[in-house]
Amino acid sequence: MKPEDYTILIVDDDEKILGSLERTFARLGYNVLIAQSGQEGLDILHKKKVELIISDVRMPTMSGVGFLEKAKETMPDAVRIIITGYADIQVAAEAINNVDVFKFVLKPWDRYHLETVVRQGLEHYDATHANKHLHKQLTEQNRELARKADTAARTTVDMGKKVAELEKKLEKVSAKLSGVTPRQKK
Q1: Is 55 helix (H, G, I), strand (E, B) or coil?
Q2: How far is CA 123 from CA 47, 48, 79, 85, in A?
Q3: What pLDDT digit, counting tens, does each position of 104-141 carry?
Q4: Strand 52-56 and strand 7-11: pairing?
Q5: With contact defined as beta carbons under 8 Å apart, do 46 and 22 qualify?
Q6: Cβ partners under 8 Å of residue 81, min gap 6
Q7: Is 173 exposed, middle or buried (0-12, 13-18, 19+ CB in 10 A)?
Q8: pLDDT in tens, 54-101
């Protein structure tokens, strides 16, 4: 897919960082949405579909991890990336464990590295989305196969009953032709 096929939501309380990230990804052709708070980001997620979210960790009112937890409920398939100026391993571990963060990027970031992380995140999104589609397709095919197997089993039972009936009729006809009644045969 092309960059214009993806929407990225960037959430950061720092206007300069928000503007810089917006310009970087808009220049690459992505659809970019911005929010200056977690709540503003959630409001956007309720209105727009996004494939990738970049969020700062430390924001007033709602932390980046808190925002991403709620974002995961609203947009579970979106890839989540945390960006922060704080090398806080505890926050990184919490984010990775609780909200399935794809990557943790430190400020100041290398632009090319961040672009690569976003591209990899979107590739991950596509692969995950394709996998879910294939799983759904496989599940539907398995249901259809089970339905057909059930129909075949019922048909086999019905055919078995008909064969048994025909064998009884054949036995009677055969007995009449040979002059022996089925009771005498025993």
Answers
A1: strand
A2: 24, 20, 10, 26
A3: 888 888 999 999 999 999 999 999 989 988 989 888 99
A4: parallel
A5: no
A6: 52, 53, 54, 55, 101, 102, 103, 104, 105, 117, 118, 121
A7: exposed
A8: 999 888 888 888 999 999 999 999 999 998 876 666 777 777 777 888
Distance in angstroms (rounded) separating the CA atoms of residues 34 and 169:
81
Give, for 83, the enclosing helix (H) or strand (E): strand 79-84
For residue range 162-174, list pLDDT tens digits in order: 888 888 888 888 8
Alpha helices (runs of H) in 4-50, residue ranges in sequence order: 15-27, 38-47
> Contact at 8 Å (CB) between 111 and 24?
yes
**Cα torsion 177, 181, 184, 186: sign:** positive
Handedness of CA 66, 110, 52, 7 (dihedral sign): positive
